[in-house]
Amino acid sequence: MIFKKQEKLPKRVPRHVAMIMDGNGRWALARGLPRLAGHRAGTENLRQIIESCVEFGIEYLTIYAFSTENWGRPLEEVQGLMRILEDVIDRELPELHKQGVQLRHIGNLDRLRPELRQKVMDAIQLTKDNNRLVLNVAFNYGGRDEIICAIQQIIEKGVRPEEVTEELVSQYLYTVGVPDPDLIIRTSGELRGSNFLIWQGAYAEWYFTPTFWPNFDREELRKAIEEYSQRERRYGKTGSQAASE
Ligand code: IPE
Ligand code: IPE
Ligand code: MG
User: Fold this and answer.
1) Residue 1: band (very low, low, confident or very high) from pLDDT cuts 50, 70, 90
2) Is 23 in the pocket of ligand 1 (CB under 6 A)?
3) Domain count, the chain
């Protein structure tokens, strides 16, 4: 029998974890590899993170894979990232489906090649009844773009000003039906939000680690959740109010 170290699982687990998977380029650079090798290593790493989320009882995982700003990178890298998304769907979809993962997409698919767009939509359709873990893939996602789209639709629908509430706005976002993230993790030591879930993350807890995304493993995730479980979420109230809720 393999001896497995007994470890404490976190006490209070976030329902929804969102991740800014950053540092693939620097991970590759440090090894003298091309940046795309870092992106490939980053997607390889996702498998164990998804499995760990299921193990820890996380219900929703949102991953930032390509931002609206990432179009500004060299063409070769942009094309490489599109290819990687395509390969990941081809390679991982059957297993994800088997594990009961429900795939969703947040962002705008219009700018993707029609074949890739179709592939994403087919994956969503295939897994729509799964309920073990909801995996939201933010691809061509931008928080400001999302809010602009919501405003456009709200105006188009002729919604009256006094009807505009937080609940109504949430209904028009890409994340409709998904609870707000409890914990947002950013790897690679950068301390910024980079246009990620700017509405939904209004009261999220943040966790930063210097680890590059391809090295962010189950143990790191466990540590992040452990730290989350020690935090007191006050939502503007006093500490004693929050403690008695
Ligand atoms: C994050 O890694 C992945 C994407 C943005 C697609 P980066 O590519 O930003 O890696 P660094 O920040 O350059 O190291
Ligand atoms: C954010 O990372 C986007 C993704 C992880 C997909 P970036 O590396 O693009 O963000 P900045 O440029 O450091 O803000
Ligand atoms: Mg980066």
Assistant:
1) very low
2) yes
3) 1
